[in-house]
Amino acid sequence: MTSYNKTVAIIPAAGLGLRMGADVPKQFLDINGAPIMVTTLRAFHQCNLVDGIILVVPARSVDFCRDRIVKQYDLSRVIKVVPGGKRRQDSVRHGLEATEGKYDIVVIHDAVRPLVSPLLIDTVIKEARASRAVITGLPSKDTVKEVNDAGYVIRTHDRSHLWLIQTPQAFYYEDLLLAHQKAIEDNWEESTDDAALIEKIGIPVKVVMGAESNIKVTTPHDLNLARFFMRMQ
Questions:
Q1: Distance (Å, rounded) from C-alpha 182 to C-alpha 188?
Q2: Which residues contact 33 (CB under 8 A, 6 or more apart)?
Q3: Is the distance from CB of 224 to CB of 218 less than 8 angstroms?
Q4: What is the pTM of this model?
Q5: Radius of gyration of the chain from its Cα atoms, rounded to whole angstroms
Q6: How large is the greatest C-alpha to C-alpha distance in the chain, in angstroms?
Q7: DSSP reduced 3-state for 27
Q8: What count of other Cβ atoms lies within 10 Å of the Cβ of residue 30?
Q9: Could you give all domains of the chain from N- to C-terminal order, each with its CATH number?
Q10: In 3-state terms, what secondary structure has residue 100?
Q11: What is the pLDDT of residues 192-227, one digit of tens each?
Q12: Which contiguous run of DSSP H or E holds residue 12?
């Protein structure tokens, strides 16, 4: 690839959010007067380097999201709303297939990380153009111990080399497509992020500094924390 003319963001929002314990999936919960996914999408709307956004949602919610999310909140840069799969990995692949190969760089970001900044998104895209595969994260502040099924410590890891990984993550389109194709062909188990698939096909992945506020809303505590960060902003 010699030029990087177009970038697409894929926002997986197809999860059920069972740990939240709410009546609706967590991506639809309110934060600062709008659904969590709307706050996330607005951040990508503000990035000039993002040419289009593909939103991946539960199959039963596709029409709802087109009308009550994209249209209602004037998210005109969302070019497609597509149904997700059983696993996050499947949902990202559905979004990737929906790009029809029209983009050079693909940015993946969790819909339930609503506090991502446009600056961080831009940084990841620019770094991906130079480094091919880029993820965000934070150095671990805590001691990390590996524990067996019985609850006993197996070993203590050197935290100076351990990072807690976030999204956004950005990759060359061809690399990410190949990684997802290999995952199907070789029946790879579900990966918790796309970088794990990229690593399996032998492509080096660079880590850049994420943000303390870029939390993933998974539990009620996370939701309260996200609301606190938004008030502080």
A1: 8
A2: none
A3: no
A4: 0.93
A5: 18
A6: 52
A7: helix
A8: 13
A9: 7-232 (3.90.550.10)
A10: coil
A11: 899 999 999 999 999 999 999 999 999 999 999 999
A12: strand 7-12
